[in-house]
Amino acid sequence: MAVFTRPRQAFVIAGVLGLALSATACGTGDDKKSDKAGSAECAPYEKYQGNDGKKVSIYASIRDAEADLLERSWSQFTECTGIEIAYEGSGEFEAQLPVRVDGGNAPDIAFVPQPGLVKRFADAGKLKQLGADTKALAEQNMPADWLKYGTVNGTLYGVPLGANVKSFVWYSPKTFKEKGWEVPTTWEQLIALSDKIAASGMKPWCAGVESGDATGWPATDWIEDVLLRTAGAEVYDQWTTHAIPFNDPRVVDAVDRAGTILKNDKYMNGGFGGVKSITTTAFQEAGLPVTTGKCAMHRQASFYANQFPEGTKVAADGDAFAFYFPAIDAAKGKPVLGAGEFVVAYADRPEVQAVQTYLASAEYVNSRAKLGNWVTANNKLDIANVASPIDKLSVQILQDKTGVFRFDGSDLMPAAVGAGTFWKGMVEWLNGKATAPVLQGIESSWPK
Amino acid sequence: MTTATPTVAAGAQKVDGTTSTTAGRVRRRLNSRTATLVSIVIAVVWTIPTFGLLISSLRPEDEIKTTGWWTAFTNPQFTLENYQQVLFGRSSSSGQLASYFINSLAITIPSVLFPLAFAALAAYALAWIKFRGRDWLYIAIFALQIVPLQMALVPLLRFFSTGVTLGGVTLMPAWDLVDEQKFAQVWFAHTCFALPFAVFLLHNFISQLPGDLMEAARVDGATHPKIFRTIVLPLITPALAAFGIFQFLWVWNDLLVALIFAGGGNETAPLTVRLAEMAGTRGSEWQRLTAGAFVSIVVPLVVFLSLQRFFVRGLLAGSVKG
Lengths: 448, 322
Known about the structure:
The structure holds 2 protein chains of 2 kinds.
Chain A: H1 2-27, E1 55-60, H2 65-73, H3 75-81, E2 84-89, H4 93-102, E3 109-112, H5 115-123, H6 132-141, H7 144-147, E4 151-152, E5 155-156, E6 159-165, E7 168-171, H8 173-179, H9 187-199, H10 217-230, H11 233-240, H12 249-262, H13 283-286, H14 289-292, E8 297-299, E9 321-324, E10 334-345, H15 350-359, H16 362-370, H17 389-399, E11 403-407, H18 409-412, H19 415-430, H20 435-444
Parallel strand pairs in A: 1-2, 1-3, 10-11
Antiparallel strand pairs in A: 3-10, 4-5, 6-10, 7-8, 7-9
Chain B: H1 4-15, H2 21-30, H3 33-57, H4 61-66, H5 71-74, H6 81-87, H7 97-128, H8 134-144, H9 153-162, E1 164-166, E2 169-172, H10 183-207, H11 211-219, H12 224-235, H13 237-253, H14 256-261, H15 271-277, H16 288-306, H17 308-317
Antiparallel strand pairs in B: 1-2
Helix pairs in contact in B: 1-17, 3-16, 6-16, 7-10, 7-13, 8-10, 10-13, 13-16, 13-17, 15-16
C-alpha cells in the first residue's frame, strides 16, 4: 500500500489545483455588451447594428498565435455590434469540415483555403448564397482574378480574405552585399548568379519538401510557378481544370526547367547535402541555411518569414528577405502565384451575413493588417497599415495592376491529384525518377 | 517502464502457482541471467525515444531545431522555456493549458465510469440470467467490436444534430447542445464505442466465477441485484480496474472523437486538441510539442503506475481459462 499513497496524493493535488485554476478561468470574460454602440469609434459599424447578443461560429485552419491576431482584429466589431464570434481553429480543418457539414453540425462561417473544397460544398448545395450587401462589397473590393476562385457555376460563394504570395525567393541581403551579388530580375540573371555562386564553392539553392502527410507540396509550387512563366496563365488555367492533359508537352518542359535547378547537384542542397536530401528536409527548416550563409536562395511563399528564428531581421537590409521569382518570358507578363482563404457561409441568418460583410470591408482588412503578419488582395487595404517589409512587398505585388495572379494549382485540382498523386509524384521525381513517367502517372490518376 | 518487467514475472508466478513442467521450465529460463540481460536491453532500447523527447523538451528552441537531442551531452544547454510556453502560453484565443486539462478530466472520468457501469450489468445478465436468445445477443455484441468507429462518426453526429425521424414521426428531437453541454455528446460517443469490448471482457471474467457461489446465494434468498452487488462486484474488481485503465488511456489520448463531438472551443476541447494546435498554423513552433507531450502523459502515467498490478492481471482476463 505504501507504493500507492504518493501517486494518489499527487492525483488529488492535481485535481484540486486544476479545479482552482478552472474556477479562476471562469471568473473572467463574458462582459461583452454593446453599450458602446452609440460612441464615435463605433460609427463605422452602424450598418451592422441590430444583432445584439447573437452568436456566430467561425471555423478555420488558422490557429495559435495567428488565431490570436484574428480574434483581436474583430474585437472592436464584436464590442460595437454585440455579435459574439466563437472562433475555432483546427489543424484537421480540411478533414473535419466535411464530417461536420455531413453530420448536420456545420459552422456558420468557414475560411476555406481550397477553391476545390468550396466547389464541392457548393455543388452539394450546402453553401448559402451571399447576401446582397456582401456581394456588392466583395465585387467592389476584390480583384476579379480572385473572385473567380470563389465562384461556382456563376454564383459567388466565397469571398477572399487573407492571401499569401508564393512567387518569392528568399535570400540574405547581408550575404549578398558582402559577396557583391546583385538581386536578379530576369531568369538569365538568376541562372548566371546561381552558376557564379556554385563556382565559388557554395551551394546556391536549398529546398525541402517534407511536411508530414503533405510531403511534396513545396515542389508542386515550384512547378506551378515555372509553368506560369514558361507557358503563361491561359495554359495554366487549362492545366488546372484538366482541359489539357496533366502531362502536356508544355508541362513537361516546365517540369524539366524546374529540374535544372531542383535536380542539379551543383545547385542543391545548401546546408543539407545532395539533391536526394530535398525529400527528407522539413519545409519549415529548408530555408534556414539562408541566414547562416550555407545556402544563397530558397524559393518559398511569403509566410516563410515566420519560420526564421526570433531575432532574425526580415527586411531589405536585414538577415533575410525575398525577391520576386523572375519572369522567364517577358511576353507572358508578370505572373504571381499565390494562395489564400475564402469566407463561405453555411447559414444565412442576418448576424452571419453581417459578419460576412464586415470581413470583406475596408474596416476589417485594415484592422487586421495593423496587427501585422497578414496580407490580403482586398484593394481597400491601405499599404501604410502594413508594417513588415515582406508583407508590404506582398501587398505591392498583389495590388500591382500589371501582375497576372493565379491561385495555387494543387488547391484547384481534385483532392485525389492536388493533395495526393501530385505531391507523391514530386517526391518520386526528386528522388531520381524521370519527368515523363512521373507526369504520366499523375495524369492517369486524374478522376474521370 | 522498466518496473513493469519484474511485476509480469511475479504475476505469472502467482497465476501458475501449481505449474505443469512446461510452464516451470519456461519460468526457469525466463529467470536466467541472459534473459534478465535481454529484458534490460529491450527496456532500454524501448525507452530511448521517450528519453530523447524528455531531453529535447528541456533544450532551447534553436538547439532543438538545429541539432539532435544527443548533442545535449557534449553541449549541455537546458531551459524550462518550452514548459513555460506550453503551460502558461501566450495564446489568448485558446487560453491556458490548465483549462484544457480540466476538460480532459471532465471528458475522461464519466467516459470511463459509464461504460464500466453498463458493461458490468450487461455482462452479469448475459452470464448468469437465463433468457431466450442470450447467446445470440452476446455474439452480436462481440461482433460489434469489429465495426470501426470512424464509420459511425457522421451518423452519430446526425443523431445528435438532427435527431431521429422515422416516416415523418420524430422519435427523438435534436439535442441542440451548446458550449459545456457538448460534454454529454462526447460521453455518449465514448460509451457507445467502449461497450462491446467492455461487455466482452467483463463477461469472460464474470462467467468464470464459480456457479456454486451464485446457487448458494440464491438458496439464501438473494435476488439478482443483491448477488451482483455483494458477490460479483467485489470479485471482479481486478477486471473492472483493468478495463478502467484501458478505457482511461484510450479516452485521455483520444483526439478524433473529441474533435468531432466536443469541437475545438475552449469550453469543451481536451488537452489533445490543444496540443494538436500548439505548433501553430504552419507548424513553425513544433518545439513546443516536446514539452506538451510530457505534460499530457503525466496523468496516464500516474494512473498506470498506481493501477499497474490490476493492469497485468487484466491482461489475462480476456484470455480463455481452462
